[in-house]
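Bug: token stream looks shifted between consecutive jobs. Job 1:
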Amino acid sequence: MLQLYIGNKNYSSWSMRAWVLLRQAGIPFEEKFVRFDGFDSQSEFKRTMTALSPTGTVPLLRDGDISVWDSLAIAEYAAEQFPDKQLWPQDKAARASARSICAEMHGGFTALRSACPMNIEADLAEVGRIVWRDNAAVRKNVERLCSMWSHLLAQHGGPMLFDQFSIADAYYAPVCSRLKTYQLPIPGEIAAYIERVHQLPGVKAWIDAALAEQDFVAMDEPYRAER
């Protein structure tokens, strides 16, 4: 069986992408949880992951002797190994678009990711109001997200970005969580899409587990000193 190494569900957005994809697609895997206790070379997390992966990061997928690190590489590997799951859109043009927006997420939206780190169990609406007021780059990132999602939902008719659930929806699931946590202003149609994503069984299972963790990791809490 596949093994997927992940970090804390409350904080680990990159882990969430791979986990949600496999869970929502019905691909069996064994979860291997490695708690965030630090990212320096002496931390238990780093020692554990460095022994398994050259990057020492999560997520990491193990398939027998094969190791796949990086969430986008894991998504591509899953799509290749399980073609019947149709993780990418079947239409060539739609598939190219889906790959493009996943790559855009992978390398972009740095302002939003930096100013609004994922924190599923927190209510950071007040922080969100300050970020929105003071950070033009975050506003630009959100504008791009809303434009992208609106176009794709209109083009493919919903309920997901490319009609049916795909890697693209798994890839943007942590962004949906950020927008809810910080309550950044978004149009109604985008809010409706976010709610549909949150109701996907794979996403709901991740969120429920994140809420049950009850694990305050100070290094992942730039806006709170305690829970």
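Job 2, same session, no restart:
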Amino acid sequence: MQTLIIYSTIDGQTLAICQKMKTIAEQAGEQVSLVTLEQADALSLADFDKVLIGASIRYGKHRPELYQFVNRHHAVLDTKINGFFTVNVVARKPLKNTPETNPYMQKFLQLSLWQPQQLEVFAGKIDYPKYGFFDRTMIRFIMWMTKGPTDITGTFEFTDWEKVDAFGNRFSQH
């Protein structure tokens, strides 16, 4: 089984989740290629049996390149075992941590020609010390408005790694 895992990340949490998915798939006996969204454009999706895409949110949006990629390749993606997950800090809230209740997943499904077979939502990470002044200020303001952590000296990981394992196992069993 040839599996392609594609990621779109800004600060690296989506990549970390994709690396975990890769390990799970390899333990299930799959041959896995892990690539960025940009690298995926140079590949032939027809060469893979399964495709999983993970993408993060910044300032309420997935990157435009994500939509360009999935809309360009949706016909081929539809012929594969496929899945999509989004990583966002809003998913730290219990009422916004499922594909049905997460506003970013719902927006993705509205804007995408591709309707993935398997969906998941993971809470991300805030790493204030890693951000530049603008991002740190904006993210802190957003967190203040949404009652999240605002200590700019802190790093706050909200990712539920058991949920990541569970989704990785479900995706690998197909």
